[in-house]
Amino acid sequence: MNKLPFQLGIHPINWVGEDVKEHGDNTTCEQILDDIQRLGLTGTEMGRKYPTDPTALREELGKRNIRLVSQWKSVLLSDQAYRKSELDSYRRHTEFLQSMGSTVISTAEVGGSLHFDPRRTPHEKEVLRLSETEWHILAEGLNEAGAIAREHGLKLTYHHHGGTVVERPEEIDRLMELTDPTLVYLLYDTGHAYYGGADPLALLRKHYDRIAYIHLKDIRPDVLDEAWAAQSDFVGCIRKGVFTVPGDGCIDFAPILQELVDRGYDGWAMLEGEQDPAIHNPYEYAQRSLLYMNSLIRQPS
Question: Pfam families from the xrefs (predicted)?
């Protein structure tokens, strides 16, 4: 089904929520992987329903000809006190992904975030933006993590992400400016770009040379407006259904996909929806989204 020239996979978050645990919580690993196989896709990220034992995971993926492309890794590198323990954890994470044949590590700073920073308390309301000192500490830590990834034949791909200290366009620019381009790459996410206030196409063009991995996700703008009017935080926005698959929201994917085609992007891209699977059937939404994206590619004249 995939006519796109780059490698297209799908994230298990379409079936089972990562930040909203009740979404698809009764779904099994077998259901997810069988659906991915039926869709004709051969790449996935790690999901919380997948086996954590590498042998069992290889068996489940291998019998369906599916590859583990990446796995999310939270880091707290903006606080120097956490540097050693975070890098030790990053090395173990890298070794696991290397053993699975993965190529990229989805990496995001959790310092300052409401939902992911272990130093925050439940009553707090806002993301704590980084100070100038913290920016430099974070960049140094990411460069060190990127060196660990490179030692193992992988790339650190930084995931700009809603509800974190690197979500806005100027924050993405700052991160790219401060980090070593040979050690820290960008995970370009269309949905999180829009959520953070960026034009997804402009972001793609501006930082294309740093992009080593992609998440293709759409936005329901009316739901987003309502969520923000109600002062919903990031997880609240997910619960309200802000995110969906490409073709079901407001992002124009035609120029985005054509830009990737014209530039010869040959890495992996993951189809993402991150919505309640009880309301939005993951297989059916993914199937429609694949048809939509295929329809956007210009045929050779």
Answer: AP_endonuc_2
- CA–CA gap between residue 27 and residue 224 (Å, rounded): 27
Three-state DSSP at 139 gives: helix
pLDDT of residue 1: 54
**Sequence-ordered alpha helix ranges (H) in the chain:** 29-38, 54-62, 83-99, 132-151, 169-178, 190-195, 200-207, 221-229, 234-240, 253-263, 282-296
- What's the Rg (C-alpha) of the chain? 18
Residues 259-276 have pLDDT tens digits of 999 999 999 999 999 999
pLDDT the model gives residue 299: 54
pLDDT attached to residue 292: 96
Compute how many other C-beta atoms are within 10 angstroms of the C-beta atom of residue 132: 8
Cβ–Cβ under 8 Å, residues 66 and 20:
no
Task: For helices 253-263 and 200-207, give the axis angle rounded to 10 degrees.
Answer: 20
Residue whose structure tokens are 């989805």: 106
Output the pTM of the full model: 0.96
Q: How far is CA 299 from CA 84, 85, 211, in A?
A: 51, 51, 25
Closest among 95, 273, 265 to 189, alpha carbons compared: 273
135, 165 Cβ separation under 8 angstroms: no
Strand 43-45, strand 268-271: pairing:
unpaired
Q: Is the pLDDT confidence value at 202 over 80?
A: yes
Strands 218-219 and 243-244: antiparallel
pLDDT digits (tens, 9 = 90+) for 108-157: 999 999 888 999 987 788 999 999 999 999 999 999 999 999 999 999 99
